[in-house]
Amino acid sequence: MFKNYFKTAWRNIRRHKAYSSINILGLAIGIAACMLILQYVSFELSFEDFQQHKDRIYRVQQDRFDNGKISTQWAAGAFGVGNAFKAAIPEVEDYVKVIQSSRVTAEVRNQPVKIEKVYFTNASFFNIFTYPLIAGDKNTALKDPFTAALSASTAIKLFGTTNVVGKPLELNRKDNYHITAVYPDAPVNTQLKPDILLSYSTFQKWTTDSAGNGPETAWEWDGCLTYLLLNKGTTPAAVEKKMIPVVYKFTKDDMKKYNAGVIYHLQPLNDIHLYSHYMMEPGENGDGKTVYLLLGIAFFIVVIAWVNYINLATARAITRAREVGVRKAVGSQRSQLIIQFLSESALLNAIALVLALIIVVLAIPGFNAVSGQHLSFSLFSKPGFWLGLGSLFLIGVFFSGLYPAFVLSGFNPVDVLKGKLSNSGQGSLLRKSLVVFQFVASLFLLIGTVVVYQQIQFMRKQSLGINIDQTLVLPRPLVGIDSTFLKRITAFKQELEQIPSIQHITVSTSIAGEPVDWNAGGIKLVGQDESKQKQYRVIGVDYDYLKTYELKIIAGHPFDRSLGSDKHSVIFNRMGIEHLGFNHPQEAIGKKIDFWGDQYTIEGVTENFHQQSLREAYEPLILRLIPDVNGSISLKMSASNISQTISSVKKEWDKMFPGNTFDYFFLDDHFNDQYKADQQFGKVFGIFTSLAILVACLGLFGLASFTTLQKTKEIGIRKVLGASVVNILNLLYREFAGLLAIAFFITIPLAWLSSNSWLQNYNFRIGMHWYYFLLPFLLIVLIALLTVSFQSVKAALANPVSSLRSE
To answer: At 312, phi and psi to the nearest 5?
Structure first.
């Protein structure tokens, strides 16, 4: 029996190739797009899933307060919190500390090799995180000072093998370590991806004085990522409550003295990637809103594809009415007819599914390039993928095939054979409702695409308040940091100044496009009460920083050797002056501040500028003059002979800083990398919006077919009575115009609310303008008219004699 059902279904598909092709193509595009998005979403939601203790690992996140208001929110906190919480809270089973280090340089065959991801950590790292060691003992690997663990790829890069336990490792030509372990490379779906792990006891040895004062005892010293492993069955909220008195015990004197406060929270490890965007994050994180927005797009696309099938199936109802009538007349039961039409739906969906898989295979490399994801063909080996695909197929068969099956099987055979077939108002209402849904979904996505594009363009074109064009940046040297280093920096700058194409040179501890690492608390005006102390971001700069970056001075003057500026001079940005308590920048000039026990004179105030992307708010910032600062070297260059200039710079670099890799980048590219994720999201959003509109057009084509078939006799009579082609087209367009209008008024509030919610992620954002809604609507109207016109013009131009004879 089922063989006959599918044989009949196959015959119907072959007999009506045009309709079948449209159906299969629409379903294939919808399913393929849905699968790609679901894989994207699945990857974003899979972060840290490989961790065996993921449900029990929590990161300690810190909020700092000044005068009762949040001043900073850190992913990292004080170095002593792990020890203190473990000692005082029984629910804490273990803890691990992770401190981000700067990149290091090793040597391979007398050539410097740069290593980026370097962390100090304690011996519990391999007990809490799931990195099964390739070699070494996880309990002792990072216990002693000057011990190191290497990732497999780093070991191969440096030694050509992973059999390196027991070998010495020299970093930056001065620090000698003993390799005690090798661990597998971190998967892509984790935040911490260490190339080298150095023992935390090494960090302690460097930072603790002879009296025992060091990071463990300084709770105002921030910079340590702390992860807690809680006992099974422990409620995080209960642990957070117990953390409060522990923190108060160690910080109460300082907090009371400075009218400050600190609160620690527990972040579930799985939530960090999508919902954590604090200072000192060890890696770039995703965006939960973006992920679930794409999940909504996947839903829209596949439902539009199913709606397309329903519309095309019901549009063909008239042509199949006599088939149903004959079948019923010879004894077919309605249940048998329902199975017949569901079989046809299953066959169409199965063909579409196979085509969708081919599309996915072909699209994965391009999708990865556009989205920045790491999808691979290995997803086809995962049972979850096939389970999801099977579920999508079954839902598609019943969702898209059930209503047409009931409609087609419900025809009265007597009425059908007498030619008295008419369609119920209820069925017509459902079809129109489905098309309204398609219009709403398409318009919603198109408005979203416009908003995303406009926001990205706004961020890229907005004035930064700092000139980063034609700026070449050399990261600070790592090797040869000795008593002669600062003299070599000065000599290096003097040599580069002789190159005609280099206009300005400056050295600073931070560059635009990156968060300012130097966070200084306890700063106040001289003479103020200590309760007035606040936190600021600080950039150490030389005399040429403001000139090189063309920062606008709104009060006072820039650092100037001829004016007697010395090491005890600072310049604030406008927000920093407001943070200090001044209403007008000029009021601050000449005032002195307390900065960690020393006094500094405010020489100038700059206009606020964007140190980071426009996603971030302005921060209170201090530019502190350090004439011999060790930091990144920025070169302002002319646009001509760039390659020759870089070659000349490299020559001087190799002479002044032997043993250091020569790395460089252009600052505008580096700054715009901050928008890479937004741009990738915009491209993905635009591509899938286009696919949704394409599939919706196929559904609209189905309704146009149905409408023109229904009105064949009416069109013929109107033409005989003298109606023009324009009159006929107006008749056919009127119905779709009403549906478009309904969709427009439904979409406006939905699109406004969702777009406005997405824009809240950005501190500097576009406003919602009326044309963001009108232009997408006009585009949808144009697309709809072109789609409907294909059938409508054909019907309007048809010979009325043929139309009336067919009836």
So the answer is: -70, -35
Range of weakest confidence among 151-160, 252-261, 489-498: 252-261
Mean pLDDT of 363-384: 77
Integer Cα distance of 104 and 571 in angstroms: 32
Strand pairing report for 534-541 and 621-625: parallel
- Can you read off the two tokens belonging to residue 132? 């099964």
Give the residue carrying structure tokens 């300084």.
218
DSSP 279: B
What confidence tens digit (pLDDT) does each residue in 311-365 have? 766 666 555 655 666 666 656 666 666 777 777 777 888 888 889 888 888 888 8
- Environment class of residue 640 by beta-carbon count within 10 Å: exposed (0-12), middle (13-18) or buried (19+)? exposed
Coil vs helix vs strand at 676: helix
Reduce the DSSP state of residue 530 to 3 states and report it. Answer: helix
- In three-state form (DSSP H/G/I as H, E/B as E, the rest C), the secondary structure along 298-361 is HHHHHHHHHHHHHHHHHHCHHHHHHHHHHHHHCCCCHHHHHHHHHHHHHHHHHHHHHHHHHHHH
For residue 50, the SS3 value is coil
Distance (Å, whole) CA 419 – CA 330 = 18
Alpha carbon of 659 to those of 146, 197, 345, 662: distances in Å? 21, 22, 68, 9
| Torsion-angle region of 556 (φ positive above 0: left; ψ -120 to 50: alpha; else: beta) | left
What DSSP element (H or E) covers 253? Answer: helix 236-257
Q: Are strands 260-268 and 57-66 parallel, antiparallel or unpaired?
A: antiparallel
d(CA 435, CA 699): 7
User: Would you say 507 and 489 are in contact if contact means Cβ atoms under 8 Å apart?
Assistant: yes
Check if the beta carbon of residue 165 is closer than 8 Å to that of residue 135: yes
Asked if residues 716 and 803 have their Cβ atoms less than 8 Å apart, the reply is yes
User: CB–CB of 79/218 below 8 Å?
Assistant: yes
Residue 194: what are its φ and ψ, rounded to 5°?
Answer: -70, 135
Q: Which residue has the tokens 């921060």?
A: 619
Residue 72's DSSP bridge partners are 64
Angle value at C-alpha 614, between 610 and 620, nearest 5 degrees: 45
Q: Which of 437, 336, 293, 496 is nearest to 1 (CA)?
A: 336
CA distances from 361 to 366, 367, 377 (A): 10, 10, 7
pTM of the model: 0.84
Q: What kind and span of H or E run contains 451?
A: helix 425-461
| DSSP code for 673 | G
Compute the residue count for the chain. 807
Place of tokens 């590219």: 669
